[in-house]
């Protein structure tokens, strides 16, 4: 049916195609691997930055809460002082 030369050519063609496929896939693999590693590094860096910013935000919120509490205490103190002054004025 098929002669030996024809079958050898088909074998050689298949080998060359397989070799070409390997040559095409290997660089693609390494390129995507490098891109994935780069993305992972970027994500790690971004998550570290977000963690630091989150800590700073919490510190600012706590500081703001402290300031709010201090402001409230000052207002209460002023209200007590005003009452005492009013009492003193009423007595005199």
Helix content: over 70%
Give the N-to-C terminal Cα separation: 131 Å
Strand content: under 5%
Overall mean confidence score, pLDDT = 89
Which structural class fits the helix and strand makeup?
mainly alpha
Low-confidence stretches: none
* Total number of beta strands: 0
Main sheet overview: none
Question: What is the global morphology?
Answer: rod-shaped
Taking all Cα atoms into account, the compactness measure Rg is: 39 Å
User: Total helix count?
Assistant: 1
H/E element string?
Answer: H
Can you walk me through this structure?
The chain is mainly α and 92 residues long. It contains one helix and no strands. It is rod-shaped and about 130 Å long. The N and C termini lie far apart (131 Å).
